[in-house]
């Protein structure tokens, strides 16, 4: 009888023990790769100082938060913040870039860290261009896979410090 109860209670524990073995290094899924591609497309557009074509990367009702300010939808942010800023820059470069991406069904969660350097244009009354601005930045984003199978930003929040 004792053996029966030991076997009965030990049987459910065997699959749990088997699951404690660390999995082999996972290869990125197609969805994770697609999410990373969206992150890169947006990053490249900023580095080109050109937001052309970036609207398709965001859902129409997206929310953009930057350094403590709710900027509204991406379209509003593009027209009233990002676009005008990019016109004042001579360059924008990312370095030390790292991204963690988790895909969970039709949603993906991304955390990015990077250093960015902004070159400013020389003003008409300035003898030389201002010194470059260099900051450490982070961004967290939620993306959703749409009916066409494309990943788009739903919410993105970025901040930076010296």
UniProtKB/TrEMBL annotation:
The SnoaL-like domain, residue ranges: 35-160
Pfam families: SnoaL_3
Species this protein is from: Hymenobacter gummosus
Keywords, sorted A to Z: Signal
Name of this protein: DUF4440 domain-containing protein
Signal sequence bounds: 1-18
